[in-house]
Each structure stands twice: as structure tokens, then as C-alpha cells.
Amino acid sequence: MPDPKHAMAHHLYAHLAPRLRIVQSEAVPHLQTNRDTYDVLYSVFGALDFTDPRQLLSTAAAALKPGGRLVFATLAHYLSGTLAQPDVVAAEVPAKSPDGQEAAMRRWVLQEHIWIKLLDEAGFIRITVDMLPAAINGPRPVDTLLVSAHRS
Question: Where is the Methyltransferase type domain (predicted)?
Fold first, then answer.
């Protein structure tokens, strides 16, 4: 049975670029089997929020072609307003399982300088981080970090 979120992603975004590949997979194993494959990797509050960045960033760098670009949006602070972590530490955040049961999941909400350090250590260059302020009338008042880096 197809995942409804994967189908929705295809419906919303597949028409935007004929070569866009929307992949439904665990990020690290997928990227490990696709070295030097991608021109761009893009994540919006996705794998980079919920996978240990020490593992994912080096794997993403290897999956990008030389000069390829990683772009991701991530929380600048927790939804509660608590400051982002000053070190590479995950927090347990409340979630719901597919059947609606209360659960918890690990989420990395890191300060800007930590993201820059991790990207540099993973071999990225030309790293930029822009802080996008929360929408004043939005449903969740949370600032966003928009991060971009290139594989060396």
C-alpha cells in the first residue's frame, strides 16, 4: 500500500521539475547506495531533523556529485520556544505513531554554528545559513534556519 505522504509529495511537487526524484526510503541507507549521484539534495523539516547529522551529513556529501548542493530547512529553536542545542544532542519530542498512539522521537534542533561546524567536518564548502523569522499569524511561531552547502 503506497504511503499517503509520498503520494501527496508526488501530487504537489512532481510537476515542478521533470527530473525531480521523490524518494521514499530511509535516508542513510539510500544515500550510501547512491554515491556521486545527486546534483541537489533538499529537505524541509525532514531527514536532517530526525537523523543523527554526524552520520547523515557525511553520507549526503558522498551522495552528491562534486559541486552538488545540499539545501535544508530546520527549526531555529524548539516549537516550545526553548533555544536550540549548543552541541550535537537530540531531544525526545512528542509524536504519534501511524495508528495514533502517543510516542516520542528524536529530533536534532541545533544552533547555527553547530550546523556550520558539522557541515564543514563532513566536507562541505560555501556554507550559508539564513534565519527566516516566524510568520506573525502562522499556526506555529517558530523561526527557521535555511541552510545551503556545496560538496567540495
Answer: 18-72
> How many structural domains compose the chain?
1
DSSP letter (8 states) at residue 120: H
Residue 131, CB half-sphere, CA atoms under 13 Å: how many? 11
- CB-based contact 48:74 (threshold 8 Å): yes
Q: What is the domain range of residue 126?
A: 4-151
2 φ, ψ (degrees, to nearest 5): -65, 145
> Which is nearest to 95 in space by CA: 87, 104, 86?
104
Question: Residue-wise pLDDT tens for the chain (152 aa)?
Answer: 567 777 888 788 878 877 777 788 899 999 999 999 999 999 999 999 999 999 999 999 999 999 999 999 999 999 888 999 999 999 999 888 878 899 999 999 999 999 999 999 999 999 999 999 998 776 777 999 999 999 99
Give the number of other CB atoms < 10 A from CB of residue 61: 22
